[in-house]
Amino acid sequence: LTTGLESAWNKLKGEEVLTKDNIAEPMRDIRRALLEADVSLPVVRRFVQSVSDQAVGVGVVRGVKPDQQLVKIVYDELIKLMGGEVSELTFAKSGPTVILLAGLQGVGKTTVCAKLASYFKKQGKSCMLVAGDVYRPAAIDQLTILGKQVNVPVYTAGTDVKPSDIAKQGFEEAKKKNIDVVIVDTAGRLQIDKAMMDELKDVKRVLNPTEVLLVVDAMTGQEAAALVTTFNLEIGITGAILTKLDGDSRGGAALSVKEVSGKPIKLVGRGERMEDLEPFYPDRMAGRILGMGDVLSFVEKAQEMQQEEAEDLQKKIMSAKFDFNDFLKQTRTVAKMGSVSRVIGMIPGMAKVTPAQIREAEKNLQNMEVIIEAMTPEEREKPELLAESPIKRKRVAKDSGKTEQQVSQLIAQLFQMRVRMKKLMGVMEGGSLPTLSN
Ligand code: GDP
Ligand code: MG
Questions:
Q1: If 156 and its partner were Cys, which of 130, 131, 426, 433 is the partner (CB 3.0–4.6 Å)?
Q2: Please, where are the H alpha helices in 208-318?
């Protein structure tokens, strides 16, 4: 998926703004990448439509290239697709919280029971596991062993008792012991069948669980979304747990579940160890899929800056008042966004800058700061004063410990910047370029 998307961004290199025409090809790449990641066609269609609509109307953000903008739009849309926010688990208002786990055979239900117990214990909650898979003695043994491993009690009643009875007995036992969370393991089948669904309905009826979570294997791709939908219609679930995400390189399962079934993924399993269970963060997942965390935070910060400062800055530039205070502020904003080297690294296509060049750029920034700090407040506001007076420049050079030439260079740079920014503002306003004489 990541490589497929990569070629989409590459097609926008050199473009000035996103238009209906220049996004057509990248959008085809994105569409293909999603389909290859096993996202279902209707979901892909809606996704591509929504991204295209937004991209065409997005306008220019200062310092952000169109390909970066498209990355950001796709990222936001991916998050939305996966439900936006983290879906927290719900807890019962009184009495034990009951979590019923369902799912096909081998998806990781029994493992999830113990992982969940370990997860809750870390939050200071007491847990009990209930062995509701009565078809194989080995299943009960497995849960017992895992329970020991994470140090929580396991309620078992052998293989001759109905799962719904075991569930009820286990729940009563937990209530007596003032346990906070009861986690009920159930039997899976290789495929959905009526007996399994009936059994789950039975267990659900007697337990009235707070959460009914369907455990799905991420390797099943878009089939995962279909499973969640079916289980939801049949027994009614509150969410899903996506397991084996450590082995899934495609991510398609995570993308479609919410959109197709209407139910959120609440947790993900990323390995066989007991610690390998975590909440499902749509934003992190989207970032992982895009593999471009740096570009994303860069665009986000640029957009924030844009909103906060653009108006103020624009006024100043239009009246040619961009002074050394603004210059300093800009420089520091860049520093806030990460050191120069990081910012440069964030910009695709700029990664070939050598470390020596980066060190040079950083040193230049520091020099600028030192020189500006040696100016009087008045000089900072009115750089013309310095431009007109060699004596003042000499003083600044002496106080900052830099050469007169460096001071002159910085002043020239500020005036160049005024011109450049004025030009840029003209472009951003969609107006014609202003004449360059001030
Ligand atoms: P159940 O039949 O649904 O109860 O599945 P199990 O809990 O017995 O798990 C089946 C297999 O999947 C076991 O070998 C687990 O160790 C393995 N497994 C479970 N969760 C994960 C996971 O998140 N990542 C990986 N790599 N393996 C897992
Ligand atoms: Mg099992």
A1: 131
A2: 223-235, 252-261, 282-290, 293-318
